[in-house]
Every structure is written in C-alpha cells, then in structure tokens.
Amino acid sequence: MNNKNDITKIEKALKNKKQKIAAMLAPSFVSEFKYPQIISQLRKLGFNNLVELTFGAKMINREYHKILEKSNSLVIASVCPGIVESIKNNPELKSYNKNIIPVNSPMIATAKICKKIYPKHKICFISPCHFKKIEAQNCECVDYVIDYNQLKQLFTKYNIKPSKEKDQFDKLYNDYTKIYPLSGGLSKTAHLKGILKKDQTKTIDRWKDVEKFLKEYKAGKNKSIRFLDVTFCKGGCIGGPCTNQKLSIAKKKQLVLKYLKQARHEDIPESKKGLINKAKGISFRN
Q1: Domain assignment of residue 240, given as a range
Q2: Which residues pair with 230 in a beta bridge?
Q3: Best CA proximity match to 92, nearest among 212, 181, 227
Q4: Which pTM does this prediction carry?
Q5: Cα–Cα distance between 55 and 140 in angstroms, integer?
Q6: H or E stretch covering 216
Q7: 251 occurs within a structural domain
Q8: Residue 108 domain-assigned (yes or no)
Q9: How many domains does the chain contain in total?
Q10: pLDDT tens, 23-81?
Q11: Is residue 146 part of a domain?
Q12: Looking at the domain assignment, is residue 55 inside a domain?
C-alpha cells in the first residue's frame, strides 16, 4: 500500500522541480504557525500553490443547508472523521450510521476542488489530527499528508524560519468559515437560522459527551434536537492531538478569531476568492 504519510517520499516530491505540489491547510494552523509568514515558509519548502479548507467548508455548508431544510429526523454532522469512525465502530451506536449526514468533510471537498483547478498537481494535506490523516490516506484526491508536528520538523530540518515577507493563499479564499476549527463553527456559518430553531441544534465537542448524548437520545431524551454539530476533540479541531498542547483551548480560539478579523481586512483579488463557479460540476455528497 502506498503510504501517503511517508515523509521521505514527501521530501523527495518537494525537491522534484518537474512535479508541482499544492498544499491544503485547515484554518486551525494559526494556533501553530504565524500568518502570513507560514505561506512563504511553505513556498520555500517546495510547495508551488497553497489553499485553505475554508472554501471547501463553504461548499459543504450549502449541502447541509439543503439536507436540513428537508429533514425532520436527527442529523449528525460528518465534518469530523473522528466522530464518524467512532460511531461506526461502536456496537451500541452503529444504528446512528443512518443519521450521519452523507456529505464530504471540508478536507475532501477542498481536495476535489483542488484536483479541478490544479489537475497536474499532487495534493498534500497538512493535518491537525490523526483521524484527518487517516481520512486523507483514504481520499483518492489527496496524494500526501503530514501533520503540524511533521511540518515543524521539516521547517527545522531545512532551517526555514518565519520571515517578514507578506504573502497570500493562491486560491479559494473564504473568510467567515475560518471559524470552522472551533466548536460550533459549522452551525454558526451554515446559515441555519431560517430552517432550525435555536433549541433544535446541539453542539458537543468531546467524544465522551457525544457518546453520552447519543445513548440518552436512544433512551428517549432530547428528542427535540434535529442537528448535532459535533467534534471528537475538546474545543473542536484546535484541540486536535497534533496541535500545540502548550496553549490552552481559550488561547487557540483567540488566535483563530484574530485570524478571521485579520482576513476580513485583507485586500484579496477576485481571482483568489472561493467563488461557487469554481466548484461547478463537483459532487460533495458521499
């Protein structure tokens, strides 16, 4: 089996001037790396193009809106592969498989879009957690995957330090979905106000608490809930095991919100924005 997480292969590919590589970053990266310095660091490492998962998140939000508009039963978010796999592998909860929304994660959605706009590129996902790395390993649109810790190792190995260079992502800019890595980021950005009442949405950000809720729901409790916005880690993706464990969840959240505010003041060319027509013809359903 081809290991997409083979660092030696990734390094070799980055040195190959004949092969172009695009990197996909989740917005949780700001809890680990400085922006916009991270962009120039990645270019120096050998990446040709850089995109963020935020436009992919926007596109799957549109799918959630369509499905929740018509659904009257419990719908469980599928943005977190840790949640999806944990439900599937739990004998007591596997009946909830039918409740997991059949929509791609932002990572898979972005990878599909990248394959369309960069057809000759290899795609590398830079991940905040192990579950997303496994998801990337199984995604045919992703060629390589590394986590934040491995990226730091590469920067150290090649002595690539943050500089004062100002740079931007190349494509697929979207601002409001930059809060996706925070607990509740999905429900806050999917424009659900018109189709769900406030007490019909539940946000839970730790597997043990998700498990407890689902068991209680099975027993007849909390039946008013129609949508579960859930993540495996406390705090959301910013609490992932490959993120900076020295920072508190509150501090990481602060960094993401600061990044959102900064992004809204950036002068982004129209060609770099995540426009819906760039995803035309792509299905984001599982």
Answers
A1: 7-245
A2: 204
A3: 212
A4: 0.96
A5: 19
A6: helix 207-218
A7: no
A8: yes
A9: 1
A10: 999 999 999 999 999 999 999 999 999 999 999 999 999 999 999 999 999 999 999 99
A11: yes
A12: yes
